[in-house]
Amino acid sequence: MGVAGRVEAVCVAARKGEPKRPAASITLVADHGVAGDAHAGSARQVSLLATESLDKLRAKGLAVGPGDLAENITTAGIELCALPVGAVLKVGGAVLEVTQIGKQCQAPCAIARRAGECVMPTEGIFARVMAGGEVRAGEVIEVAPEAVAGEADGDEGGDSHGQ
């Protein structure tokens, strides 16, 4: 077993620009994203953010909770931003591959205006759904021991540009 943490919340929004709202569960669809979410089908299929990142904003006086930074899955116990692109996460029967670390906010985003900075550019991560499944708060989320999807698939580190 690799490094493990916990899913604190799962969130979804039907339209872009709306805050994501906590849900009882989300369904991850292979090569698509979160069923019913506005960002499904995009290059950033699933977004994840650690509760520890939200805690940094709370320490600055912001009242933020799961989904307020547009993340689909809020985690605890895994330093998400330290994972390499290609890392594999397993949660609720689903398998995710990390595709991007950080996202530039629309300058400046509402969080940055209120706190002076936003954690998404450096601490939010994005993933593609390799295998679908249902995900609920309270479930274990695990970093697969093989760490990088390309190595797990037998790719010896060849050039992945253009994929």
Task: Report on this structure.
- The chain is of the alpha+beta class and 163 residues long.
- The protein contains four helices and eleven strands.
- It is globular and about 35 Å long.
Cα-based radius of gyration, to the nearest Å: 15 Å
Write out the CATH superfamily name. Answer: PK beta-barrel domain-like
> How would you describe the shape?
globular
Terminus-to-terminus distance: 29 Å
- Return the CATH architecture: Beta Barrel
Estimate the strand proportion: 25-35%
Structural class: alpha+beta
Following the backbone from N to C, one meets helices and strands in this order, namely EEEEEHEEEHHEEEH
What is the helix fraction of residues, given as a range? 10-25%
CATH fold category name: M1 Pyruvate Kinase, Domain 3
Set out the fold topology.
Layout: E1 4-12, E2 21-23, E3 25-29, E4 33-34, E5 46-50, H1 51-59, E6 73-76, E7 88-91, E8 94-101, H2 110-115, H3 120-123, E9 125-131, E10 133-136, E11 140-143, H4 149-152
Parallel strand pairs: 5-6
Antiparallel strand pairs: 1-2, 1-6, 1-11, 3-4, 3-10, 5-9, 7-8, 7-11, 8-9
Which descriptors apply to this entry?
single chain; 163 residues; alpha+beta; M1 Pyruvate Kinase, Domain 3; seven-stranded mixed barrel; three-stranded antiparallel sheet; 4 helices; globular
Summarize the structure.
By secondary structure, the protein is an alpha+beta fold. It has one domain (4-148): M1 Pyruvate Kinase, Domain 3 (Beta Barrel).
